[in-house]
């Protein structure tokens, strides 16, 4: 995936660092699968500031968000919808998984991520 530069609010850097140090179990479990270019050699980042948001995982054109307990509340869902709209305006694709999927069905989570990357790579190769 081509590296795309997306601006971010520098005030979010410390908060993102804190999020990395205080990750949920599902974030840690998925990170163990994504780090070190394990998925088709792509370099993922976790708790990455983009625009005025912090995304759970980021790799060039792809954002991966994990929805946990707090996503049961309407105000969080509304904030997530706004976040998605803004990120999509930058040409990003957002894949969402809930914590239970990551904890109980990692194979399908990884298959979905790999399928997106495979399709994206195929599209780029055809351009």
Work out the helix count.
5
Instruction: Give the low-pLDDT segments.
Output: none
The ordered H/E elements are HHEEEHEHH
Shape: globular
Give the termini distance in whole angstroms: 13 Å
Average pLDDT rating: 89
Strand order of the largest sheet: 1-2-3-4
Largest β-sheet summary: 4 strands, mixed
Report the β-strand fraction as a percent range. 15-25%
Computed structural class: alpha+beta
Number of strands: 4
The helix content is 40-55%
Rg of Cα set: 14 Å
Q: How would you explain this protein's 3D organization?
A:
The two termini are 13 Å apart. Strand 1 and strand 2 form a beta hairpin. The model has no long low-confidence stretch (mean pLDDT 89). The chain has a four-stranded mixed β-sheet, sandwiched between helices. It has 127 residues and is α+β, with helices and mostly antiparallel strands. It is built from five helices and four strands; from the N terminus they run ααβββαβαα.
């Amino acid at each position: 995936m081509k590296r795309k530069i997306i601006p971010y609010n520098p005030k979010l850097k410390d908060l993102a660092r804190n999020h990395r140090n205080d990750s949920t179990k599902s974030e840690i479990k998925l990170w163990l699968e994504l780090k070190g270019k394990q998925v088709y050699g792509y370099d993922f980042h976790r708790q990455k500031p983009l625009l005025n948001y912090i995304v759970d995982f980021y790799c060039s054109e792809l954002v991966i968000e994990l929805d946990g307990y707090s996503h049961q509340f309407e105000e969080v869902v509304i904030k997530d919808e706004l976040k998605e709209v803004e990120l999509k305006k930058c040409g990003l694709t957002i894949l969402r998984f809930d914590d239970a999927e990551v904890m109980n069905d990692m194979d399908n989570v990884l298959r979905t991520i790999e399928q997106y990357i495979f399709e994206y790579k195929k599209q780029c190769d055809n351009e």
